[in-house]
């Protein structure tokens, strides 16, 4: 028997329960893994609450990321072997698979060998954050060496990854945060400048930092009316990329009469993980950064699987800097 986190109704962290389940053998194109660490993501909170783009089918599990060891492979799986250390990337539907358990079955196309120099905790903290940052900062080709990049809510795991990816390609990351107490940590993480939006005018500070030009790209998970302010900090022919919806209010499209040379779009990492070619490039890019030390996932805190509800409460509080990881002992 394995232990899985399941829930039978929408709600807060209290709906999550740890139960004994029969896992069985992997089917064609699947892999069964022993899980050593699980990376938590805000998407899983939204899924649990019923506000994600997919709705859970009860009883439902959840979880996009994990690191562990291959226990068994299904028919047609040739790129993985039993006993191999691996990482699970978010390349599947939460209605079909999940990683919140000590032994789970996941699709083989979402499983990759783990770099030798990467621990299970680090590997569980990498993929959602770095793939999300990889798309608009590298795959799209919109950011060049020397360009300024504005990273909103930069204390998140994606924000931390975006800072490192920007540095890796020679861009100049400007981080934003609402909490002045996080400024020092963001500078230590590689931000060239930090704008505390509760104390400073964003547009004025960005124009000062960039010599009046504005940023080449703004990478924003907040959305809502604030995108109008962010748009004013973007250079001519620049890009606004909204990849989340932390602000539930309507998000206006920047007015064409005010920003005639600005492109704006939404983005999710699924545009990378659902395309085999893009995913292959993303994994190669991220593994290279991990191997050279350019990428080091920031781990804020770890919890035991039995503390999953507490871990979700901690994530919801948004006081963390970097990734929250659940660890398992066997």
Automatic annotation (TrEMBL):
Keywords: NADP, Oxidoreductase. Gene3D superfamilies: Medium-chain alcohol dehydrogenases, catalytic domain, NAD(P)-binding Rossmann-like Domain. InterPro entries: ADH-like_C, ADH-like_N, ER, GroES-like_sf, NAD(P)-bd_dom_sf. It comes from Lentzea aerocolonigenes. The lineage of its organism: Bacteria, Bacillati, Actinomycetota, Actinomycetes, Pseudonocardiales. Residues 11-326 form the Enoyl reductase (ER) domain. This is NADPH:quinone reductase. It comes from the Bacteria. SMART domains: PKS_ER. One of its GO terms (molecular function) is oxidoreductase activity, acting on NAD(P)H.
